[in-house]
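Whiteboard transcription, Tuesday session. T.W. wrote the C-alpha cells on the left side:
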C-alpha cells in the first residue's frame, strides 16, 4: 500500500524512491509489526482476562503447569494482526506470492481461532473435532497447492531442490501439489505440537522465518541466485517483507509470552505460523531446508507419533509424556532450561540450513 503511494509521490520528489528498496521495506515491516504487537498487546491481554478466556491445564500433565491455569490465551491473534497490517503496508501487493502466503496464514488462523473458541468460550475441552480441523487444513493447504501449480510461470517453481547438491534438481510435475500440501499442513501441526511451554514455539519460528527471509531475498535476486547456484524465482524476493513482519510480530509477542508468560499463543497462532513457514518454504523451493532448520518442530512431532505408535502396538510408552518437552519436564528439568536449550538447538539447525547456500 505504502509502496504504491511512494511510487506516486516519487514523481514530485525523487527521495521517495528509497522505498523501492526491498531491504528498507523489510526493516520497516519488522519495526511496524514489532510496534503494533507491543502497542496493542497489553490491551488484548486485558480483554482476554476480562472475558475469562484462559488456559485450561491438563490435570495429568506436569504439576508446574497447574499455576498457569487461567492465563489468557488466543494471543496468537496479536501476531496475526501485526503481520497482516505490516505486510499490507510495506509489501508489493501486486505480487501473487504475498497474497498466497498471507491468505494461507490467515485461513489457518481462523481454523485455530474456531478451535480455541470452542475450547475456551464454549468450555468444550474437545475443541474443534480433529476430523473437521484436518478437513479445513486440507482444503486450504490443497487449495494453495493447486493454485501455485496452475499459476507457475517458470520451471524452477515446481522443482525439488536437494540441499548440499547444486546439480540435483528434481522436476516434480503434478507431485508438486502433493508435496506443497504436505509441507503446509505438516508444518502447521508441527508448530502447534511444539507450543507447550512459554516462548518455546515462537522463538524457533522467528529464527526460521528470518532464515527463510534471507532465502527469499537471494532467491528473488537474479545475480545472487546465479552466484549461489540456487533457483531464481522472480516473485520470491517480496516474501522477504512478509518474513520480516513475522519476525517483528513474533518478537513483539515474545515480550509478553516469555517465561512466566502473560499470554499464550493458542491454536490461532500456532496453526497459522506453522502454515506460514511451510508456505514460504514451498515458494522459495526450500522444503528440505525447512526440515533441517525446523528440526525442533520435527522432533516434537516425531515424539508424539512414536509415543502413540508404541502405546498402540506394545502397550508401553517411550517417553514419560509427549510431546518431548513434557518428557524433560517430568524428568525434573526446569521449564526455562528446556526452552533455552531448544532455542540453542534451533540456532544450530538454522545455521546448518543457511550453510546450504554455499556448501553445494
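and on the right, the sequence the group agreed on:
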Amino acid at each position: 500500500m505504502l509502496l504504491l503511494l511512494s511510487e506516486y509521490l516519487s514523481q514530485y520528489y525523487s527521495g521517495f524512491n528509497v522505498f523501492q528498496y526491498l531491504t528498507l521495506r523489510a526493516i520497516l515491516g519488522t519495526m511496524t509489526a514489532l510496534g503494533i504487537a507491543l502497542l496493542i498487546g497489553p490491551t488484548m491481554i486485558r480483554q482476554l482476562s476480562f472475558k475469562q478466556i484462559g488456559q485450561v491445564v491438563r490435570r495429568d500433565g506436569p504439576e508446574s503447569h497447574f499455576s498457569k491455569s487461567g492465563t489468557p490465551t488466543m494471543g496468537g491473534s496479536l501476531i496475526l494482526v501485526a503481520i497482516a497490517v505490516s505486510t499490507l503496508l510495506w509489501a508489493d501487493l501486486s505480487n501473487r506470492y504475498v497474497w498466497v502466503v498471507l491468505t494461507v496464514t490467515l485461513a489457518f488462523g481462523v481454523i485455530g481461532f474456531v478451535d480455541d473458541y470452542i475450547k475456551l468460550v464454549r468450555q468444550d475441552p474437545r475443541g474443534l473435532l480433529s476430523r473437521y480441523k484436518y478437513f479445513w487444513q486440507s482444503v486450504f493447504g490443497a487449495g494453495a497447492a493447486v493454485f501455485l501449480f496452475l499459476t507457475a510461470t517458470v520451471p524452477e517453481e515446481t522443482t525439488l531442490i536437494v540441499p548440499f547438491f547444486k546439480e540435483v534438481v528434481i522436476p516434480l510435475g503434478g507431485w508438486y501439489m502433493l508435496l506443497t500440501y504436505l509441507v503446509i499442513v505438516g508444518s502447521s501441526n508441527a508448530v502447534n505440537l511444539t507450543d507447550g511451554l512459554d516462548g518455546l514455539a515462537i522463538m524457533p519460528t522467528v529464527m526460521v522465518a528470518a532464515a527463510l527471509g534471507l532465502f527469499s531475498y537471494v532467491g528473488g535476486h537474479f545475480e545472487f541466485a546465479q552466484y549461489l547456484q540456487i533457483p531464481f524465482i522472480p516473485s520470491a524476493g517480496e516474501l522477504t517483507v512478509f518474513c520480516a513482519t513475522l519476525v517483528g510480530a513474533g518478537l513483539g509477542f515474545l515480550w509478553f509470552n516469555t517465561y512466566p508468560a502473560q499470554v499464550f499463543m493458542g491454536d490461532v497462532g500456532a496453526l497459522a505460523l506453522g502454515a506460514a513457514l511451510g508456505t514460504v518454504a514451498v515458494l522459495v523451493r526450500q522444503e528440505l531446508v525447512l526440515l533441517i532448520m525446523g528440526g525442533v518442530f520435527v522432533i516434537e512431532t516425531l515424539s508424539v507419533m512414536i509415543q502413540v505408535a508404541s502405546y498402540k502396538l506394545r502397550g508401553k510408552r517411550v517417553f514419560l509424556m509427549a510431546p518431548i518437552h513434557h518428557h524433560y519436564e517430568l524428568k525434573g528439568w526446569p521449564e526455562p532450561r528446556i526452552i533455552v536449550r531448544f532455542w540453542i538447538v534451533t540456532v544450530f539447525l538454522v545455521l546448518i540450513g543457511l550453510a546450504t547456500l554455499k556448501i553445494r
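Someone added at the bottom: DSSP finds 14 helices and two strands in the chain.
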